[in-house]
Amino acid sequence: MIKPTPKWLLSPAGRALAALLLVVALGLVFNADGAFFKLGTHRDTLRQASTYGILACGMTLVIVAGGIDLAVGSVLAVVSVAFSLMTIHGGWSPWLAIPLCLLLGAACGGVSGGLAAWCRVQPFIATLAMMVFARGLAKTISGGMKVSTAVQNTDGTYRYVDVPPVFRAIDSRVLSENLSMVTVIFAVCAIIAWLALSRHRWGRYLQAIGGNEEAARLSGVPVNMAKLAAYMACGLLAAVAGLCQAAQEQQGDPEAGAGYELTAIAMVVIGGTHLMGGRGGILLTLIGTLTIGYLDKILSINAVPESRRLMLTAVIIVAAVLTQRHRRV
Amino acid sequence: MRTTSRRICQALLLGSMASLAGIANTAPDAPPPAPAKTPFTIGMSQCNLGEPWRVQMNADVKAAAERQPELKVVFKDAQNDTLRQRAHVEEFVGAGVNLIIISPKEAQPLTEPVAKAMKAGIPVIVLDRAVLGDQYTCFIGADNRKIGKAAGEWVVKKFGGKGKVVELKGLMTSTPGQDRNAGFREGIAGSGLEILFEADMKWLEPDARKEMESALARFDKIDVVYAHNDPGAHGAYLAAKAAGREKEICFVGIDALPQEGVAYVAQGLLSATFQYPTGGAEAIDTAMKILKGETVPKKIVLGSRVFTRDNLVKGGDLIN
pTM for this one? Predict the structure, then answer.
């Protein structure tokens, strides 16, 4: 006699939550002499996960529509370099630099989306090309060096400038030091993405496209425009992540974000969004982000050596996915 | 079936992604404007320009070469691809350059191409990483273990032999990571310094910040952070600053690039940084000697300097 599965476990969110609870339970057991019970640990976990989470929100929009965006890590790097060049070296006002950076990210996404929608290039290829191009662009505009507060004069010597106030503002904390600003930014991004995907017509279009693109087209969904918008939104969110990355590193690193796209995809999929499109949501991605974020933190506070950390991560991810596997009779 | 083949296709693409990403590593290696008289051409093969340190190495070679009017240097970037670097050496031999400078990615696969260049009568200077055997003209490099040891001894002296240390390690599968770790342990051996927490931050600043946050969450008293590179030390500093504990901790890094470690020391973020010299200028000096027919030593170990707030103005102190 098998017990019937509790109802809450049958919903995708419930299953994702079970995986998160599994990871948190690990933290309660392996609490590293009580470090896991400190408020600061959770604040730092959320800070660390926020950049990835912002990328994952954009990734969710694209994946729900049956696509994929491999370029987010590179776009993050381009934007972090551009933002640093504008604000640290150029001394531009953030009111000018931030919109330009967001535009840059959206443009990168737009190119991928345009290629995928109208030129019928497979999203994998289109965004792979953008991933390579954007990385090259980041290296080109930075000259291969990190854009930091040490500014090279024409005679080869260096002068030091202050970290721009906007960097300090993004890397600050609110709620009497208990919440990082980047986490607030992540939350805002997640809410907007959730509203768009679950409450707006565009979100239903994306789900329809991901479910069956041809059927969506025949039912009058503006498939190409909706797809383009998804990739642009993904690029825009990658730009937001790039701003956060630059502020947290206090520099623009052309090598930043390498491999972040895979973490973002993992967060989306662990949350329970289908990699083939059609089904999924921001709430699931949020839970997936927390699952990976907490896993990372628990391994870190216990000072698990890198070699074992990689293997443990793989095992726990598989365990988490298995707990939330769709059981059909 | 269609999905299966699509998946196979994607798997294949994932494989090619790595090599494509390598293409992104291309940095502009514009040939220097040819001076009126260039009797000597040097071919310089860099294993990758993805790291600021190697960009600096090329910049140092270029700056030193510009002081020699009869010298022309052709730069090539192997984008972290061993076989591409092997092709560089063969191309230089084919082009008949007067001398080759190579900073090899790996020893074994590049040993033979270098030996062949030597057989063709072209002297080869090997920079930073070695090749096997003795078929090269001169090896120039620094000693990571010695630098790590100097860092350890500096910390012992600064803290009177007592204190609690966090070590943020570079990739421990790389020899610089291993040597900077072993050297530091050697330097602090026998003292009362205790390693509280150690983690692999893979040379990456965001990872260093994350690991430092964990260390701060676990331990109420940390005296020193020893990071295997300056970005790591900077990441740790940012974590401590966010926790309001940066004043009670002394941060030590390695590499001392002008725009990284030295800048951080100048700005008062790091207490010390230990230079890992690129050897770019020394390579050109040695090349000029070889080209003029002088004899050069088979191995040149570069001296390192320590930069602290007090000695920054005079350009750091030499480490013995």
Answer: 0.81
